[in-house]
Structure formats: structure tokens, C-alpha cells
Amino acid sequence: MLEPLSDRVIIKPTEAPDMTPGGLHVPVGAREKSQRGEVLAVGPGRENDQGVLIPMRLWVGDVVLFGKYSGTELEVDGHPVLVLRESDIIMRVR
Questions:
Q1: Which structural domain range is residue 68 located in?
Q2: Is 60 among the domain residues?
Q3: Does 23 fall in a domain?
Q4: What is the pLDDT of residues 56-83, one digit of tens each?
């Protein structure tokens, strides 16, 4: 089990679509890197300068959008995951 520290989040990125909205097939080499994913784990939050814990605003299961080049890519049990800071997440998708 992965347990992120501080204000870090572990995300399972969704796969980029293999078809365009017009129905054209996109080859694997030409697909854009996905900027959407599901939160798998969240850290406890970060401490401010006074030592007060600022809790995370994300929950496991949230679907989020993040910057294209954000985070650190890892492979866990053969599956790609991203480790990001909460501040690298652009928005929650509802």
C-alpha cells in the first residue's frame, strides 16, 4: 500500500482516448499524455509556518485534472501512477 506524505496525492491517470471526436483513430505514438486521473491515496496535509496542519481537500476516488508535466511518474504493480502535490491539481471533476 502506498502512503503519500505531507500534501502529496497519488493518482491513477486515465488513458488518452484512441479516437478523435470525429471518429478518427489516433495511433499510440501520437496520443497526448492524459491530464485526468483518479485519486488513489492522499497525504495528511501540510503544516503552515505556525505548525498548524492544513488538511487536504481531496479524497480517495475523486477524479481530477492536473498539469500535463506535473508530478513524478512511477510504476506500481505494473500500472502507471503519478505522485503530485495538491497544488499541482487544477480542479476536481464532478
A1: 8-16+28-93
A2: yes
A3: no
A4: 999 999 999 998 888 999 998 888 999 9
Confidence category of residue 21, pLDDT binned at 50, 70, 90:
confident
The answer to whether residue 2 is domain-embedded is: no
Q: What is the CATH number of the domain that holds 79?
A: 2.30.33.40
In this prediction, residue 49 has a pLDDT band, given cuts at 50, 70 and 90, of: very high
| Nearest-5° Cα angle at 71, 65 to 74 | 110
In a domain, 1, yes or no: no
Q: How many domains does the chain have?
A: 1
User: For residue 90, which of 11, 5, 6 has the smallest C-alpha distance?
Assistant: 11
